[in-house]
C-alpha cells in the first residue's frame, strides 16, 4: 500500500542535489494566508501557500504544515502540483529551483535549464504533472521534467526574434504539450522538433492566462471566458467571469475562481453551484460537494465560512520583533539598504501581534487610507494591553500611534495619534523602547523642534500630559537618520545610519529630557573610516558595547563608564592562517544580540547569522539560507528569549525560530538537562549537549568504575561532549556520570549519560 503524502511530515527528509538543512531545533512563524493552489489526496486537501504547504483532513479537522523549517528547501512558492496516483508533488519557487516531494523524502532541484543569452526571470510560473512527467512553465518557455529519474528532458525556448514569449501555464495531454503565452494557446508533440519554437502551432489566438487538464476535460481561460474541450474542440462556458484567477479541471468538474467567487461546472460546462467568498482569491477547489476558496489573505475558506490554515501572522513581510514573555509584536516597516525608505511601505501592513495563543491582526490596518510604514511597534511591559507604533513616511499620518488591545474582541482599538509636525520630510519616528522603570522613548530622523536645520532626535512619553517631549541629538550633516535606541545601564544607545557617529544619552531616569547628557563617538575615535553609518548596538554581560556599522564591528569597552571619557572603540582581531584579521571587516552589521551565556548572535547583510563565543574570537554556528531554514541571508532583527532559549530571526520573507541551548544563566545551576539521552549511535552521531549549567562550570565525566574519561570547563550555560575520552577515542557502551561544580564550588549538579554504540 502506498504511503500518504502526509507521512512526509513524520519522516526525515533527504535530497539529491543539496544538503539537508532542517532539524528538530527549527520552527517557522510563517503566514499561511496566501493560498496559491489546492490539490487532493484520498480526501485530504493539500494547500500550497507563499512560504509552505499545509494539509487538511476534513474527517478529523487536523491541519499539518510543511515548510523550510521541516523539509522544504526554499520560500516564495510560485507553483505547485500533485499526482495522487504516484504520491509525488512538485513545488516551484520564484528563484527557479524546485522540491520533489515523494514518500521517500524531499529532493531539491537547484537549477532549471536556461537558454543561452536568456537574462529574464527564472520564476516557476506553473507546474503540471502527468504520470512520471511534469511540464514546467517559465519565462523562457517550457521544460519537461522526468519525475522518476529526477532530471530534465527537452526544453523549448520560446525565443521569438530575440524576445522570449513567456509560458504562463502548460499541460501535457498524451504526447502533446499545450502552453499558454501572451499571444495564444501553443501546442507541440514531444518529438525531435519540440525544442524549436518556430515549429510550435497556435491552436487558439488570444491573451490566455490559465489552463488545466484532467482525464475528463481540458479547460483554458482569459480574464472573462473559460473554454472547455477535449484538446481539439473547445466551447465557451456560457458565462462572463469577473477576472478569472484560476481554472482547475478534475475528473468530475471544472472549477473556476474569479476575483471573489468560486464556481463549479460539470466537465461539459453545465453550472453546478457557486460560493461567494467576499474577498480576493487565487484559486478554488471542490471536494465531497463542498467548495473551498484559496484566498489571498485568509487561508483556505470553506463555503460555510470556516477558515482553514495553520496559525501564523497576517503576512510574511516582517522587520522588527518585540518579545514580551510568550507575547510577540512584529513590525513591517520597509527600508532600502541602510536608509529608511523615503516614502512608505507599499505593502501597508502595520504590525502583527501574538497574544500567547494565537496571532492577531488589527482590523485598523485593513482598508485604512493612511499609508503605513511601521518601523517599530511595542507592547507596554507593565500594561500589556497598551501598544505604541511608529509610522515613518512622508505623507499624512506620519507620527506615533497608541492602540489598545481588546481581549474580548481579539482586536485593537485606536486610542490616539501623536503628530510630530506637518512637514512630512522631517520628524520621522523610527524606534520605540521602554526603560526598566517604564519610560517610553522614541527616536526620530530629520528632527526639527528647535533647529531650522534638520537633525536626529529622541522623545520621551509623558503620561501625565499624554504627549511626547523631544530633543535634538546631532545637527545635520552629522546627524540626519537614526535607529531604534538600545537601553542599558541608564543610557539610550543610539546608532546613526547615515553618519559615521554613534550616540549615547544619559537619560537620568527623569522627565523632562532637557537635563539629559548627550555623548557622541565620532569617526576619529575608532569607527571604521570607510563606514557610512552605525546600524546596531548591544551591551554584553561584561558591560562592553558592541557597535555594528556599515563597514564592520567595533567594541566599546566598559561602555557605561567610558562613554563619558571620549573613548576609542576597537575592532576584534582574530587569527586567520597565522595572520591577524579584523572580524567582519567591511561587512554591514544589521543586528547584534547577546544570549544569557554572553554568546553573540550577529546578522550580516547578505551573509546570514553568526553565533559567536563571548569574545567574538570563535564562530560556534553560522546560519545561511543555503545551510539552514533561514528564508534569506539578510536578517533584520534577532531576539533571544532567555526563558525558553528560543532565538527569533526576522526577515522580509518571514520569521524563523531556532531552539537554542542557552537558557537563563547565572553563577548557579538551573535545570540541568542532558540530551539526547541515551545516545544510540545507530540513531544519532552528533555531540551530547548539556544545558542549564552555571556561567562557569567545571565538568568531570567518569565511567561506572569512577575512572576519569573527560574533563572540561564550560562557559555560557551549556556544553557539548563529543563522546571521546581524553585520548580522543570514542568511549565504550555504558553508563557515564557527569560531575559538575560552579566557579566557586558553592553549587553542584550531577547527571548520567547512557551510551549505546
UniProtKB/TrEMBL annotation:
Q: Which GO terms describe its molecular function?
A: aminoacyl-tRNA ligase activity
Which Pfam families does UniProt cross-reference here? PorZ_N_b_propeller
Recite the UniProt keywords alphabetically.
Answer: Aminoacyl-tRNA synthetase, Ligase, Signal
Task: Read off the InterPro entries from this record.
Answer: PorZ_N (IPR048954), WD40/YVTN_repeat-like_dom_sf (IPR015943)
**Signal peptide (from-to):** 1-18
Report the residue ranges that make up the PorZ N-terminal beta-propeller domain in this protein.
47-190
Question: What name does the UniProt record give this protein?
Answer: Isoleucyl-tRNA synthetase
